[in-house]
Design goal:
By secondary structure, the chain is mainly α. 61% of the residues lie in helices and 3% in strands. It has 13 helices and 2 strands; from the N terminus they run ααααααααββααααα. The chain has a two-stranded antiparallel sheet. The mean pLDDT is 82.
Length: 296
């Protein structure tokens, strides 16, 4: 078996058995490829023989290349999963899988944008687009992120079957888990405007959001459009498409939404992932106080 075959089997497992996102498949595949090359393995048995010491040496070399804590933790998670899979394929079980504790990673507090800035970003992106329908498309995507709390991958995975949008939308999130989110009238209107303006046949089962040549829209196009709008509006580098989802959560929490409801709306697997927004809300309140209070 060649290295290419090993990695192809691993990637296929991630896609079909684990139902991982394209981003995760790329990251986990790249981590596995680096390890396979480092240990010069060409079969599952060789990978199954990798012990804790060997994995530590590989990770130490990666850290020497400048890998930071967050990336190192992600790489270790990917390699643990890969080596568990390798031992299964080699028929030796999981008992000998290397046990390494990852570096401690401090959770950052997301920085939300204001409601006015969220609307302004969507409008600025639309006005700067190369064609009217492209502007309508980008505006619709960004409003789905802010108005419904979708991840960018979730918005771009929508198909034409979602049309016409109703008061709720069924979304497939991480791990193929489905949830139902409410859709504001402004979001429905934006998606409908795009659907009417775009030049392609939106057939059942096909991508709702299209690139200029008719293929499924890539996340990078939305990210670049928002980056240009961010510069035009003088917003910080933290104003990314994902920041719109953070803003959705922060503004709902500030308006009185409870954490359990917010967890369901965001599609978080655990409440711990949602609790970070209590820190966001406190941080926003503190910023407001400092800016407004005469003795702050």
């Amino acid at each position: 078996m060649s290295r290419h075959d090993l990695l192809a089997e691993w990637n296929g497992h991630l896609v079909h058995a684990r139902r991982r996102s394209p981003h995760t498949v790329r990251a986990y595949g790249a981590a596995a490829a680096r390890l396979v090359a480092a240990v010069d393995a060409d079969d599952w048995q060789a990978l199954a023989r990798i012990d804790t010491a060997a994995l530590r040496r590989h990770l130490a070399a990666r850290r020497a290349d400048g890998l930071v804590n967050t990336s190192a933790a992600r790489e270790l998670s990917a390699l643990k999963a890969f080596l568990t899979f390798a031992r299964e394929r080699a028929g030796v079980g999981e008992d000998g899988t290397p046990r390494i504790r990852g570096p401690r990673v401090k959770k950052g507090i997301p920085r939300p944008v204001t409601p006015d800035d969220a609307s302004g970003i969507a409008d600025t992106v639309a006005e700067a687009a190369s064609a009217a329908w492209v502007g309508a498309r980008d505006r619709a995507v960004l409003l789905l992120l802010y108005g419904a709390g979708l991840r960018i991958a979730e918005a771009l995975s929508l198909t034409a079957d979602a049309l016409p949008l109703g008061e709720t939308l069924r979304v497939t999130g991480k791990g193929a888990k489905q949830r139902v989110v409410p859709v504001l009238p402004a979001v429905r209107e934006a998606v409908d405007a795009y659907a009417q303006a775009q030049p392609f046949a939106l057939l059942p089962g096909t991508a709702l959001f299209r690139g200029e040549k008719g293929g499924p829209l890539a996340p990078g196009m939305i990210q670049k459009a928002m980056a240009r709008a961010r510069v035009a509006m003088g917003l910080p580098a933290t104003a990314t498409p994902h920041a719109l989802r953070h803003s959705f959560a922060t503004h709902l929490l500030g308006a009185g939404a409870d954490l359990r409801s917010l967890q369901e709306l965001l599609g978080h697997a655990s409440l711990g992932s949602t609790q970070i927004y209590t820190q966001v809300d406190a941080a926003t309140l503190l910023d407001t106080y400092r800016n407004a209070h005469p003795r702050a």
